[in-house]
Design goal:
The complex is a heterodimer of chains A (337) and B (436). Chain A contains 13 helices and 9 strands. Helices cover 35% and strands 13% of the residues of chain A. Helices cover 30% and strands 23% of the residues of chain B. Chain B is built from 13 helices and 19 strands. In chain B, helix 4 crosses helix 7 and helix 7 runs parallel beside helix 8. In chain B, helix 1 links the parallel strand 6 and strand 7. Chain B is globular, with a radius of gyration of 21 Å. Chain B has 436 residues and is an alpha/beta fold. The chains are: A alpha/beta (337), B alpha/beta (436). At the A-B interface, helix 4 and helix 5 of A face helix 6 and helix 12 of B.
C-alpha cells in the first residue's frame, strides 16, 4: 500500500478545483488509486503514513456533515494533521475579503486546503492566492469534484464500466454543483448524460454542455442505466421555480410505480442528504437498486486518493500555468502573450 | 506658459468630425478659443507657445458623458480631482458625472458642489448629471430646474432602472422643460434577479446566475415607446445586446430624438473573459456573447450608436477581492477609452479616425447641448484640444493610472493611442505626457 506512486500517471496539479479541466487519464488515475485505498478501510489499523507531517485544513463556509467528516477521515487515515474550521458566514459578513482569508492561511504554512464555500468560483479565486493545494469541496453552483468522482467510482464498481452508460441526472441541474461535476466527469469517460427536470430547473441551454435535456422522466425511464437523484432545495419552491414539492415529486420523483419500468440492473445514486418521499420514496431509497450508502463509503477512498495526489504531486517548475489561460477575444490588442 | 496670448499646435494631423476635416496643418489658439486652422507663421515669437505635433493627431478634447467620480461619498475610490487627472491623462477634456453619489445629485446644491470641485481641480470640464427622481428612488421627480440651473447636462437615475413606466414618462416629459436628455439605464430588475453575468453557456459552466439579454431589451423597448409619446429626448446608456441595437435602429427610423451609447468593454470583450472568476470582468450590463459585441460594432459603424463613453466606475481593490458574486460591478475606463477604441475599432475593424472621433467628441457634445462651445476644432470654439500619438504601441498597466482605482478589464493589453498634449479652454494642462 505504501508504493502507490509506482504505476500511476504522473500527477502534476497543485489543486483539484473541478472536473471540467481534467483529462480522462487524470480521472482514471484518481479512481484507480481510490480502488487501492478502499482496502485500507477494511484493515484493523486504518491508517497509512502517506501524508505524515502534512497539514490539511478543512475550511467550510457552508453547512456540511458528510463531506466534512469524509475529508477529515481521509486526511486522518493518510496520517496528516487535520484541522477543521466551520463558519456559516461568508467573508463579506466577517469584513474580510476572500483573498485576505487566503493570505492568512498561507501564512500559517498549510499544505492542503479543503474549501467548501457558498459562492461559485471561491475555490478558484483562493487557489490563485496561495501556494497550498486547494481541493474544492463544493463552490456555489459551480463544481463539487470529489462528489462526482465518488459517484463515478460507485458506478464503475457496480457496473464495471462507465463508457456507453446512460446516466440521468434528475432535479435542479441548473443550480447544482454535483450535476456540473458529474456532467464533465461522466462525459469525459464516455457516458451519455441526460439532464431531467422542469424547464425552470433544467433549461434547454444545458444542451450546450453536451447533455441531452429531457423534461419528462417517464419517457426515458426504460433506457437509463444510472439515476442520480439530486436533492431538491425547498428554497427553489420559495423562489417560485416550481409550484410545490408535491407536484415536483409527482413529476420527477422515483417511486415504486416508476421502478417497474426501470432496467433491473439499473442503479440509483443520491448525493444526500435525502428528502425521503420527495425525490425518492423510502422503499426505493432502501431498495436493492439503491447504492446510496456505498457512495458514502467510496467517498472516503476517493478523498484519500485526491488528498494523496495533490499532497505528493510531482512539483512543477514555477510559473507553469495551473489554469486555462483566460480567453480574450481580440487578436489585435489582446493581452500580452 | 498659459500667460502667452497664442498657442500654436504645429504640423499635426487635424481630425475634426464636426467640420469633416482630416488633414495636416497648424492649429492656432488665442486666449481661450480656437482662432484658426491652416499654415501659419508665428504670430509673434514672445507671445506664442509653440507645441510641435508633427506625426501626432490633433482632435477636439474628448467628451465622456458617462463617468462615476464617486464624490461626494466614496472618496477612497475616486475624487473629482483624481478623476479629472485620469480624464486629462486619457485626453478627455469634459466629463459628465453620474448622480449615484452619497448623497445623490438630486438637488441644486449637490450639483453645484460637483461643479465647484471641478473648478477647484481646475483640469477637465466637470458637468453634473442630475437625478431624475429624489434619492434615485424612482418615486418623486427631483427638482430638475434647480439641477439644470446648477449646470446639469442631463438627467439619469444612474445604475437604477426606473421601475415605473409612469415615473419614466413623467421624467421624460418634465426634462423637456429644460431641453435636456434623460439617460436611461435599461434593465428589468426582476429578469436580472440575482444575475451577475450574461445568461448563457459560460454562466452555466461557471455556475453563476445569469442576466438574460432580454432584461435589457424589454426596458429599452419600453423607454423608446415612452420617448415616442412624450416627444422627449432619450439617450440609452451603456447598451450591450444585439437586440438593443435593433430597437434603437427602428426608433431612429421613426425620426425620434433618441440616441445610444456603448462602453468599450462591451464591444472589446465577451463573456468568455469571466472564466477565471476575475471580478474585474464583472460589469452591469454584463459582458455579452460574441454576436452581441459584433452587433455593437456594426451599430457604431452604421451610426445607430452615437456615443462611446467610458462608463468609468472606480472600485477599491478590497471590493474587487471579494467573491465574484459579492464584488461590485464596474471598471475604470477614462485612461483606456481612446487607446482601446483606437486599437479595436480603427486598427482592427477599419473605422476611420473621423468615424471614431464623432462618437467621442461631436455626438456627445450635441446630446449634452454643449456643441455651441465644445466638441469641434472650428474657429471660435473653446479650445479644448487633445493631441495623441497613434504610432507607438504600449502596454496598459493599471499601476500607472492617475485614477485612484485599478479595476480595469484591459490590464496587459497592447494598445496604440497615447495622450501627448491636452488643452482645456486654451490652457495647456498636459504637455509631453506630463501634467503642466
Amino acid at each position: 500500500m505504501e508504493d502507490f506512486g509506482k504505476e500511476r500517471v504522473e500527477w502534476t496539479r497543485k489543486d483539484l478545483l473541478g472536473l471540467e479541466g481534467l483529462s480522462k487519464n487524470e480521472i482514471y488515475a484518481i479512481l484507480d488509486l481510490a480502488d487501492g485505498f478502499r482496502e485500507v478501510s477494511t484493515r484493523s489499523i486504518k491508517k497509512v503514513p502517506a501524508l505524515r507531517g502534512k497539514v490539511v485544513v478543512n475550511l467550510f463556509f457552508e453547512a456540511s456533515t458528510r463531506t466534512r467528516i469524509s475529508f477529515e477521515l481521509a486526511g486522518t487515515r493518510l496520517s496528516a494533521d487535520v484541522i477543521n474550521f466551520s463558519g456559516a458566514s461568508s467573508s463579506t459578513v466577517k469584513g474580510e475579503t476572500l483573498m485576505d482569508t487566503a493570505r492568512n492561511i498561507q501564512a500559517m504554512g498549510v499544505d492542503i486546503l479543503v474549501l467548501r464555500h457558498p459562492c461559485s468560483g471561491a475555490a478558484y479565486q483562493i487557489s490563485r492566492g496561495v501556494t497550498a493545494s486547494v481541493v474544492n469541496a463544493g463552490d456555489g453552483a459551480h463544481e463539487h469534484p470529489t462528489q462526482a468522482l465518488l459517484d463515478i467510482f460507485t458506478i464503475r464498481a457496480r457496473l464495471n464500466r462507465v463508457e456507453g452508460l446512460k446516466v440521468a441526472i434528475v432535479g435542479d441541474v441548473s443550480h447544482s454543483r454535483v450535476a456540473r461535476s458529474n456532467i464533465w466527469g461522466l462525459q469525459k469517460l464516455g457516458a451519455e448524460v441526460y439532464a431531467v427536470g422542469p424547464p425552470t430547473l433544467v433549461p434547454r441551454g444545458l444542451a450546450k454542455m453536451g447533455v441531452k435535456v429531457s423534461h419528462y422522466l417517464d419517457e426515458i425511464l426504460p433506457e437509463i442505466d444510472v439515476f442520480n437523484m439530486l436533492r431538491i432545495q425547498s428554497e427553489r419552491q420559495d423562489q417560485g421555480l416550481f409550484p410545490t414539492i408535491r407536484e415536483y415529486s409527482r413529476l420527477f420523483g422515483l417511486n415504486r410505480e416508476r421502478m417497474k419500468r426501470v432496467k433491473p440492473e439499473a442503479i440509483i445514486l443520491h448525493p444526500g442528504p435525502i428528502n425521503r418521499g420527495v425525490e425518492i420514496t423510502p422503499d426505493v431509497a432502501d431498495g436493492p437498486q439503491s447504492v446510496i450508502l456505498e457512495q458514502v463509503a467510496n467517498g472516503l477512498a476517493v478523498r484519500m486518493a485526491v488528498l494523496y495526489l495533490v499532497g505528493t504531486r510531482v512539483t512543477q517548475p514555477l510559473g507553469t500555468p495551473q489554469h486555462p489561460a483566460p480567453a480574450v477575444l481580440p487578436a489585435a490588442g489582446g493581452p500580452e502573450a | 506658459m498659459s500667460e502667452k496670448r497664442f498657442v500654436l499646435v504645429r504640423g499635426g494631423r487635424l481630425v475634426d468630425p464636426a467640420t469633416g476635416r482630416d488633414g495636416t496643418g497648424d492649429l492656432l489658439i488665442e486666449g481661450t478659443r480656437i482662432r484658426a486652422l491652416g499654415h501659419f507663421e508665428l504670430p509673434s515669437a514672445e507671445d506664442t507657445l509653440v507645441v510641435e505635433a508633427s506625426g501626432l493627431i490633433v482632435t477636439p478634447g474628448l467628451i465622456d458623458m458617462h463617468v462615476h467620480l464617486r464624490e461626494p461619498g466614496n472618496e477612497e475610490e475616486e475624487t473629482i480631482w483624481s478623476g479629472s487627472r485620469a480624464a486629462i491623462a486619457g485626453g478627455v477634456t469634459s466629463v459628465a458625472c453620474f448622480p449615484n453619489t452619497e448623497p445623490a445629485l438630486d438637488n441644486e446644491a449637490a450639483a453645484e458642489f460637483v461643479v465647484l470641485q471641478g473648478k477647484r481641480a481646475n483640469l477637465a470640464n466637470v458637468f453634473p448629471v442630475g437625478a431624475v427622481t429624489l434619492g434615485r428612488e424612482g418615486v418623486r421627480l427631483a427638482e430638475m430646474g434647480g439641477l439644470a440651473r446648477a449646470g446639469a447636462v442631463a438627467f439619469s437615475d444612474a445604475d437604477r432602472c426606473l421601475r415605473s413606466a409612469e415615473v419614466m414618462r413623467r421624467g421624460l416629459l418634465y426634462a423637456r422643460l429644460f431641453d435636456l436628455p434623460v439617460i436611461a439605464h435599461c434593465e428589468d430588475m426582476d429578469l436580472r434577479g440575482s444575475g451577475v453575468m450574461n445568461y448563457g453557456r459560460v454562466a452555466l459552466n461557471l455556475g453563476l446566475p445569469g442576466i438574460p439579454d432580454v432584461a435589457e431589451d424589454i426596458v429599452i423597448a419600453r423607454d423608446l415607446l415612452l420617448a415616442e409619446i412624450t416627444m422627449a429626448t432619450l439617450h440609452i446608456g451603456h447598451m450591450s445586446t444585439r437586440g438593443a441595437v435593433d430597437l434603437l435602429r427602428e426608433a431612429k427610423a421613426k425620426k425620434l430624438e433618441v440616441t445610444g451609447e456603448v462602453n468599450p468593454p462591451h464591444f472589446a470583450l465577451t463573456e468568455e473573459s469571466l472564466v477565471t472568476y476575475d471580478p474585474n470582468f464583472k460589469l452591469v450590463p454584463p459582458l455579452r456573447a460574441a454576436v452581441d459585441a459584433e452587433a455593437l460594432i456594426r451599430g457604431l459603424r452604421d451610426g445607430v450608436i452615437d456615443v462611446i463613453s467610458s462608463g468609468h466606475a472606480p472600485h477599491s481593490t478590497e471590493e474587487k477581492e471579494l467573491e465574484f458574486v459579492y464584488a461590485p460591478p464596474g471598471v475604470v475606463g477614462l485612461e483606456t477609452l481612446f487607446p482601446v477604441c483606437y486599437t479595436v475599432l480603427v486598427e482592427r475593424h477599419g473605422f476611420s479616425l473621423l468615424k471614431l472621433l464623432e462618437k467621442l467628441t461631436m455626438n456627445p457634445a450635441r446630446i449634452l447641448r454643449l456643441s455651441k462651445q465644445r466638441g469641434s476644432l472650428a474657429p471660435g470654439m473653446l479650445a479644448d484640444v487633445s493631441v495623441f500619438d497613434i504610432s507607438k504601441e504600449r502596454v496598459v498597466r493599471s499601476s500607472e493610472f492617475r485614477s485612484k482605482s485599478r479595476n480595469t478589464c484591459f490590464e496587459g493589453w497592447r494598445v496604440k493611442g497615447t495622450t501627448v498634449h491636452v488643452f482645456v479652454s486654451g490652457r495647456c494642462v498636459f504637455q509631453d505626457g506630463e501634467f503642466c
